Amino acid sequence: MAKVTRSRDGAVGILTLNEPESLNAMTPDLLGALAEAIGEMTADPAIRALILTGAGRGFCSGQNLKAAEVLGPDLVGGVMKFYWPAFEALRACRMPVVVAVNGVAAGGGFSLAMAGDMVVAARSASFIQVFSRIGLVPDLGSTWLLPRLIGRQRALELMLFNEPLSAERAKAWGLVREVVDDADLMPEAIKLAQRLARGPTRALVATRMLLEDSEHATFADQFRREIEVQSDIRQSADALEGRAAFLEKRKANFSGR
Fold it and tell me: How much of the chain is in helix, strand and coil states, percent to nearest 5?
């Protein structure tokens, strides 16, 4: 059975973590399969948006502690070898990524949910850091991603107290874009992804990259960087179509190029 299943809905690729018996707990094999699947989707020019979700009752319950033995005595080297490629693939994906969270997103699973661009959550979803409960610190990007999404104080609250964050509260805090009934999760995620897929893909991804660059730049540096990217992208097919549509007072028909 495939550890990550692949399907499509028009221009939207759908990747599903597929180890429901463990609530899709992270293993080197699972994340290796995810990195490979993202690469396959990225290589298909007909796919212009991506959805990541989990099979069964949960999105991802975090690290499978038994499987962690595969990482070996060099924890840093093991994680960077087996886990980083999947996170890097999500963050650098050439198309927008919607994460559809069903059930629990715990520990590293919480980190994985934040690695996409937008999160849609089922009403039954919950988010929990878990790490300090077992005497560990947050990892897999949590300390970088979470404070940027919800602020330092709220991030520390979740990390120090390990209290579950409901889907509704996650939306109020800005972690989740939308909360829907469980049965509506995938239809709503697909609707959002289809909307993104109809957009100017290169410009959308370049916008994401600029936002990430801004975390480490001065205002002056970022001001210049925006124009450098703008100068490059303004001759793309989508930018030319967008300007033509504006002048002709019609809706733009973007191709993702």
Answer: 50, 15, 30
